């Protein structure tokens, strides 16, 4: 499909089904905010089923919902640098360096604040209990979220050897296929809606392996599989994929998990951290 997605919807409006028109009306009324919604959230907000949304997207010549969100983001007033126009922290080529720094600082602070507001002590406690009782903790993610999984593995590896990171999705599937109920998956997925993620989650479900999910969307496909859901802040547009602000909220969650984890056996983990620090010190000049 080429051209403006909103124009395509307008051209096809009278040939849409009743649910299609209902969805189109919601999109026209909420063009900017719709691009930030998961398919589950859009279905709930617009009053149509997820299947209707998928058919709607394919009827527009798109491969699926994520393709639709990207097209919608491009149509919703984009700056000359490719960011959504209506965001308060939007940066354009006209911004001074000082303005760019201030806007980026504001978006990062917003991410931290929103993540803090959504942190639930009970959920963190449940997640840490799973981490402490696990034989192995598989830190997984794909794309930008894979980087977050690696950050979690690197952080926890200073205190425990039970954390494992695997980058390749095929190797992830193989590892989960051989995992047991005594293992745990710590999965990072901002969108909570990727095919590789769903493949891993299905295997984990069949083997009764607990899943801790770090995501932005409480109503997403990944959330249906998770035993514990930890929410990170910041609304990332499809055009801002991989933004530091979105990652910052996830890093904050990792740090919270880490210190609550160490707090359970302070002497043991303080000793482990001291030992790993000493090992790394030998590599410094």
Would you write up a description of this structure?
This protein has 13 helices and 5 strands. By secondary structure, it is of the alpha/beta class. It folds into 2 domains: 5-75, Winged helix-like DNA-binding domain superfamily/Winged helix DNA-binding domain (Arc Repressor Mutant, subunit A); 120-281, Rossmann fold (3-Layer(aba) Sandwich). Helix 7 packs across helix 12 and helix 10 (169-177) packs parallel to helix 11. It starts with a helix and ends with a helix. The model has no long low-confidence stretch (mean pLDDT 89).
Any chance you could write out the topology, listing elements then pairs?
Blueprint: H1 5-12, H2 18-29, H3 31-34, H4 39-46, H5 50-59, H6 65-75, H7 97-118, H8 121-133, E1 137-141, H9 144-156, E2 163-165, H10 169-177, E3 184-188, H11 195-206, E4 211-215, E5 228-231, H12 244-264, H13 266-281
Parallel strand pairs: 1-2, 1-3, 3-4, 4-5
Helix pairs in contact: 7-12, 8-12, 9-12, 10-11
